[in-house]
Every structure is written in C-alpha cells, then in structure tokens.
C-alpha cells in the first residue's frame, strides 16, 4: 500500500509526565487520521515531526517505537538553538502575527529567517531521504512553508500536498513580508494546497499574481477544505460518566445563572480584550441582566515567557477585575476567570451547561471550539454560538450568530439576543449545524483532501523532462529514420521579447536549424503564428531554406516552389471588422497594449501593460469576444499575455494533419515542439493518429497534452544539438 507521510512541526504525541512516557495527543489532525480506514483511503500513514537534540536518546527511541496501532513516528532531530530561533523569531514573531493581520506585533529579523530556512531544509532532507517512489507527502502549516519547494528540488516526482491551518492574509499584508517570493515559490511547487476558507485561497491567488507576476496555468489543485472535528469522540464524551459527574458538580454552583462561555488560548488573535469590553458594554447597557448571567472565560496559558503575552495576560486580568469590581455583588461575580487548561470531560461539561458560546477572534484560521460546542449540545435545549466573522468556522457554521468583534456595542446587543434566542429557533438551527458536522467529520476532511492528492503514477509512464544531458531516451531510435519535425518559433526557437518585432534567432540556433534541415531524411517545418513577412525575414533572408507555415498554418511556404500558398482560400473574414472594433476599445484603455493583424488571425498583445489591470481587462475581453463571435467560424484563444481571434481553419492541428496527408511516404517518426496554447492543437492532432509515432514536446511548465517537457526556451538548443547528433551522419 502506498504511504502518506504526514509532516508537521510536532509529532502527534505528547509527553505524559505522570506516566513518564509519550502518549497519542488529541490534536485535530491526529484524530482525523486515526478515524480513517487506511484500506479504504488507500494509504498507510506515517508521521514525520521535529524534536530538539536536547531530548534524551531513550525518549527518541521511545518515539520511534510507538506501540502497534499507533501511527509510526519519525522524529527529525534539530539543534535546540536553531529550533528556538526558527520557532520564536520567525514562526511566532513574523509569520503568526502577519498572517493574522497583527502587523504591529511583527518583528522582522534575519536570524529568524536563517533558522527557518535551516529547519525547513532539515525537514525536507529527512522527507527526501525517507520517502519511496509512490509515497505522497502531506505537509502541515505555516512552520513548514519552504518544505514543499525543498522536497521537490530533491525529489521532483514525489506528490506533495500542503495544508495551511491559519488564515492566508490579504495580498496587501502578505506583500510586506520580506521573504514573500521564496515562500510563494515553494508553495507553487505543491501538487495540492488546501485552505480552510475561500477568502484565504483568493488572497493566496492574488498574492501569487501580484508578487510573482502571473498565475501558473495549472491551479486546479488549490482547494478549500475547512477542517472539522472528531464528532463521535465529542458526542460520546458528552455522555460519558466523567462528564456527567462534572455537569452535576457545576450545576450545583450555577443555579439559575445563565452562562456565556469562552475557551481561548492566551493569544492576541483570540480577541479576549474585545470580548471582555463587549461584555462590559452589555452589563452597562442591560442592567436587567445583572445577577442572571455570568461569563465563564477559560484562558489556556501559552507562551507566557514572551513579554507581549505576559502583557496581554495582565491586561485581561485587569479588565476582568475591573468588571467584577464595578458590577459584582456579594451574590454575583460577573466574570469567572480560569487561567489554566481543563480536562476533556470538564470542557464537555462547560460546553453543555453554557447558554451561549462567545468566540470573538480578531482572526482565526478555523476555530475548533465552536464546532465542538455544537456537537456537544443537548438537542432538546441547545445553546447559541456567537461567532466572529473573522474565524474560518464562520463559513461552516451557517446558523451561528455573527459578530464583528471590533464593534463592541453591537456585540453587546447580539449577546442579549443570543441569551434570549427562542427555544424553537435554537433547536432548529443547532440541529442543522449538527447534521452538517455529522456528515462532515475531520476524517471526511482528510479523506476529501487525500483523494485529490493522488498517488503519482510509476516513473516509467510519467511525463518526462529533458534530462540534463539534453537527450530523451527515445532519441536513440532516430538513426536512419525518416523524421518529420514540426517546430514553433516564439518561445520555442527564440526567446520571447518585450516587443514581438524584436524576436531574433540566436546564431547557434540558426546553425542548428540549418544543419538539421540539410539532413536527407529529416524534414524540418516551422509552424508559427507569425505573419508571412516576419517568417520570410527570419528564415528565408537568413539562408534557412525550409518549409514554413504562417498564421497558425493558414499559409504555407514551400522552398522548392519558393512561394506562399493560402490554405484557406474561401474563408470569410467578415468577423475581422467586429473584432477590430472591440480590440480598439480595449487597446485605448490599456496602456502599452497593441493589435497585430496577421490576416487570418488578429492578436491583442498586453505583455508590457500594467499587469493586474491588463489581466483584468483581458478576462473581460475574452468573454466579450466569445459572446459576440459565437456564430462565427473563429476561435478565441487566451495565450501568454495575448488574446487571439483566429479563423477556425488557421489551426496548427489542421496544418500538420494536411501536411501528413499530402506526403507520399509516411515518416517513421514525427516530432512536434512548442510552448503555447496553439501548439496544443498540433500535439492533439498528432497523438490522435495511429499511423505515425509522435513525440510531442512542450517548452515550459504549464499543463500540456505533450508527454515530454523542456523546462524553458533556453534549453531548446541543447535538445536540438542532441537531436542532430541522434540523426546520425
Ligand atoms: C490552528 C488554528 C484552526 C483548548 N483548550 C483546552 C482544550 N482545547 C482544545 C479545543 C480545540 C483545540 O484545543 C483548539 O482549537 P483551535 O481551533 O484554536 O486550534 P489550534 O490547534 O490551536 O490552531 C485554528 C486549527 O489550527 C485547526 O486547523 O482551527 O484556527 O489557529 O480542539 O478543544 N481542550 C481541553 N482543555 C482545554 O483547556 N481538553
């Protein structure tokens, strides 16, 4: 069975100091994986996570030998000092606040970044040396953003997925990050990236577009998969004896009091000060509620050695005591403040006894507490979730009562509404949310992601990238064979330039083309989208006497006849007026864009225009053209910084078909190479034929029908050199 290697900052085990051993921890991801049937999902799971080198060797050995039935753990050992810099200086002082929109908390620093790179490299190294062919790697969260790129560098054929548990911020925030490029470039190498919320995916997409210039052609595997919880665990926990014991115990104290519950880790993102201020405003505004309600706020200690967190704790405690001092009485403490964690049964009892759960996060990737509250409710008399619209869970919990935690006065009013929400509504709403969660548990979440994070096919059947020596294995068979070679120009034989008119073939390329086209058994045909005049200038005037196809095959030039033939004589060009009219409007609005009329095709170029604006208009233009030309014999294509309308028959696919048809003797091998969307027609036409052996090669990294790839235009000469050599003398 293929393995899924889960990779996260920590291993899914916690050290139990009472028993002096590691026990499985109850983290969301760990329970999601434990709930999966490995056979059904088709993966055996193993876990890689970091431990520091101050951990005793016996403990490391113990981690490696977790009892059967547990997920096998592979500790990655990192020097303690490096780990501390990585974790404190970069993860917690840069990424955590920036991704949660807390810009004033960000402390940029080079040491942190250096350690972050180092630790990510150690993790990637461990994965690369441990993974076998056919394994998939699933990396988790913001601590390991560089791991996908580093793993792919070492093992390009491994499938790598990434899931971000925290928000991805707006590109306006993200672009402040000094290391923004390195991070995006790493993530783009993933086979799949998952986010909790559509807004995070949109922010990621626009960050890529703004910072890296353009979106990769293949972005199908960027998805939104909100995490869920282990519903069975929380449902049975709610009915467990231990939980019932706590319910009885608390009830005695609670009496008629109505509880508003808060359960938050000590962190500025949780909005604890805003929550307390809203509660204070509520008490001021609605004195009739005094002595009837109580805010039970559990704060779980976290990072207390960090001055900012210590300061936050002090402010929270100040506010709690000022509320209690101002509004309390001998019979009533308005805020019950607990600064420690509680056991699972205690937490479940609190969930069940509270009338309202108040989640006031300033930002929160998802927020599992709100989901746990929902499934722990008694269906007969459930509570209400008051939920910040800045928590990812807001998209999952359709009937939670929304709040903008920054609007303290409105939150105070919503608190009153929540406390008095009619029973029949509460029942219906809670039932709907519970039903949803029952059908979508944390295991469903993991299953959904894993079915899309496909096991890579065996290496032999996979697309092949031109090896560093420039020789595809199939080139061994070329000697003494009749070869027909269709070759694109821009982006394939010559690099793309700022202005299309500046495109020139390099000297070495010219020599190679001349040598190849002189081979007796090889016919080398240029198939380009350019007009006749440009091709004449580039090839005929440069002593390259070879067949040419201009305007995507609408015209062909034969060196023996020394003339051009129009291959689409009866094609009507009435559509051109309409197209020119629309394109002119767009050209006026878009600086540096221009129109190129190639006869059977008209192209709108925007490669030098302001990027985002031009892309935006290009999308609009594309739809407008498609709509207004629906009944015309034309094709509208979106290429690299171009939109092109061309006659249906000016198609590289038709051209190569007709060329082959006209041959008296079939070639033994057909090679086609190109970089653009129009070359896909050529690849499709050749691969659909049973009578020739086609080798289609895509130049670039975008998705293609071609099974062979050359990574960029600069590597094409290397290929041509080897091709020439393979043809024999
Ligand atoms: C990230 C994102 C996202 C907390 N206190 C106690 C206790 N807990 C449990 C809760 C819940 C979990 O801890 C906290 O849930 P979060 O949703 O805040 O998750 P994190 O792992 O902190 O953070 C977050 C999440 O990843 C998942 O993708 O939702 O937005 O920041 O399960 O029940 N449990 C017990 N006692 C406590 O005192 N027993």
What would your notes on this structure say?
The protein has about 725 residues and is of the alpha/beta class. The chain folds into four domains: about 220 residues, Rossmann fold (3-Layer(aba) Sandwich); about 210 residues, Glycogen Phosphorylase B (Rossmann fold), CATH 3.40.50; about 190 residues, Rossmann fold, CATH 3.40.50.1000; about 70 residues, Trehalose-6-phosphate phosphatase related protein, domain 2 (Alpha-Beta Plaits). The protein is about 40% helix and about 20% strand. The protein contains 25 helices and 28 strands. The strands form five sheets. Strands 16-28-27-26-17-18-19-20-21 form a nine-stranded mixed β-sheet, with helices on both faces. A seven-stranded parallel β-sheet has the order 5-4-1-6-7-8-9. A six-stranded parallel β-sheet has the order 12-11-10-13-14-15, with helices on both faces. α13 links the parallel β11 and β12. α4 packs across α5. The radius of gyration is 32 Å and the shape is elongated. About 40% of the residues are buried. The mean pLDDT is about 90. Bound molecules: GDP-alpha-D-glucose (GDG).
